[in-house]
Amino acid sequence: MLLGNAKCHSEIAALLMLAYHLDLNCNTFNDFKINLMKSIIHLMFSLICSSAIAQLSTADSTALFNKQLKLRSFALLEECISFNEVVGITAGIYKDGNIFWEDAAGQMDVENNTPAQANMIHRIASISKPMTAIAILQLMEKDLLDLDDPIQKYISDFPLKKEGTITIRHLLQHSSGIKAYKNGKESFPTKNYPTLRKAVQLFEDRDLANAPGEGYQYTTYGYVVLGVVIEKVSGLSYRDYMKQHIWEKAGMINTDVEVFGKHYPGKSKLYTINKKGEFETDKNTNLSVKVPGGGIQSTVADLLKFAEAVIEDKLINAESRKLMTTDSGMKKEGNPYGLGWFLYSDADKPSGRIIGHSGSQSGTSTQLFVFLDKKAAIAVISNTSGAWNNVFSLTDKLADPLVRPEDVNKPIRKVAKISTEILDRYVGKYKFESGTVVELTRKDEAFYGETNGGGKFRIYPESDTHFFLRIMNVQVEFETSTEKAKQFTFIQNGERHLAVR
């Protein structure tokens, strides 16, 4: 490299001449040139060897990191099963232009003792929504629709609303005002709807929760309306459009609309966690009422292929992707929402931009992260409803080494077995400086914390005095004592907060 630079040539010549005048072992300039040539050859040989060693070292380092990442990822899957968080689970990582790793743990079918498999087909729930959003943006790119068109332009008999006009954009960003499920029965539907238009008739006459464009109201029903728009504009059924323009383009060979009652080889059974914390078979709901917002089935590999297609602009152009991943400003709490995607992180964060979606319905809890700047993705599908917090936590832990490579060696916490006598020392109510009160309780050998209105969460012992949470990066430390504890320290991401009994 240096020999190709004119400035370096002159600098080297000057240094060599200086060396000659200082070289007392050279009787003539020819002697100096001979010695110099030997030195240059020796130097070049050293540089070549050093470069080769450096390249070998880098390759070895990358190979070691990849090996450790795979081992850690599988260990996290097994840990999830060992904590009885889900019945079965599959997960995968996309990076460096390939599906880097995918694996499974637990059971796909408990009754028949069938282990979970990496290519297990399962419901993806609301991860269906980003796919529907991209279909709408494809039609926009073809000038077949405008995001600010009223939906009556495409569904002429959709009722006009006294609260205002609903546009396609409103539906995409959950600001249409269309409400979510009316009750528990609608959350676990059993009725079959032969068409999406028939499904829309279930809720189209209901009042809106807010004027369109004036509030965020997460609703699967809004995406069902978008499915009808896709059919009206494209002239294809929703399934056929998605198959031709989304799934086949992305290479998603195991993705399809779930048909109620149809047998699919390699598909998991449905499970849930009951109020006692025990696993049981979940209701086999009919998803025909929610297909574009939660009626698609897939595999981890296919979700990673979908993520790759988004990263590489294979489905929509870069301008549409930017529009899709821009904060709508409608969601005021939690992660912002774009058009069909949650926005988990910004470009100025160490992780870069992260988009994705979660999913939860009968017999499933799912999560997808797409790292736009790092060109990576993580997908997790479980066959257990009521386990989304655990699935999100697992996805987050799988992502750690992609953001901070040193975390590939981060130890995985182990649960210690401690006596109920020790746990009872810590049972009671504690108050933080902020005024928040947390109550610690014990049920058999399990230890729990609960805040006012915040719900109950499990706390696991690492030793007699040190505990941790699974769903968050939180540790709880007590002082060693043979009496009732008077206080504990709550540690979250390095920040310490004292709670006093």
Distance between the termini: 68 Å
Mean pLDDT value: 89
Output the CATH homologous superfamily of the largest domain. DD-peptidase/beta-lactamase superfamily
Question: How many H/I helical runs?
Answer: 13
Q: Which fold name corresponds to the CATH topology of the largest domain?
A: Beta-lactamase
Shape: globular
Number of domains: 3
Instruction: Please summarize the sheet with the most strands.
Output: 8 strands, antiparallel, barrel
> Order of strands in the sheet with the most strands?
14-15-16-17-18-19-20-21
Number of strands: 21
CATH C-level class of the largest domain is Alpha Beta
Compact summary:
35% of the residues lie in helices and 22% in strands.
Which labels suit this protein?
21 strands, 22% strand, 35% helix, disordered N terminus, 501 residues, Lipocalin, 13 helices, Beta-lactamase, 3 domains
Report what the structure shows.
This protein is of the alpha+beta class. 35% of the residues lie in helices and 22% in strands. It has three domains: 2-69; 83-403, DD-peptidase/beta-lactamase superfamily (Beta-lactamase); 420-500, Beta Barrel (Lipocalin). The protein has helices at residues 6-22, 29-82, 128-141, 168-172, 184-187, 196-200, 220-234, 238-250, 291-294, 300-311, 318-324, 388-403, 420-426, and strands at 88-95, 98-109, 114-115, 122-123, 256-257, 271-273, 279-281, 296-298, 342-345, 354-361, 364-371, 376-382, 384-385, 428-432, 437-443, 446-451, 455-461, 466-468, 474-478, 487-492, 495-500. The strands form four sheets. Strands 14-15-16-17-18-19-20-21 form an eight-stranded antiparallel barrel. It has a seven-stranded antiparallel beta sheet with strand order 3-2-1-12-11-10-9, sandwiched between helices. Strands 4-8-5 form a three-stranded antiparallel beta sheet. The longest helix has 54 residues, at 29-82. Mean pLDDT is 89; it is low at 1-29.
